[in-house]
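If I may wish for something, please walk me through the protein I am sending here so I can picture the backbone:
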Amino acid sequence: MNRNIDYTIKIEIKKLSDMELTALNVYSWPIWSCEVSEFPWTYSDKEFCYILEGKVIVTIDHEEVTIEPGDFIVFPKGLSCRWRVLKPIRKHYSFE
């Protein structure tokens, strides 16, 4: 039996309504900001974040994900990536 199991760690990007964001208490989460820069990052915990301003390209292996205002993102625990901040970023964030 041949089973191909995909163990790839993925970034989830969603668009949530204000009602969904309020239900998750997102607007009370701390805010993190960063100027234009580029750096490697590894997530030791699962992170949820909501982008308020800016633009970032996150690279995982050979895949690039563009993150912009209004995106709700889930970064899985154990993810290693490279952040390229193209426009200064501001985000609400929470770790699980």
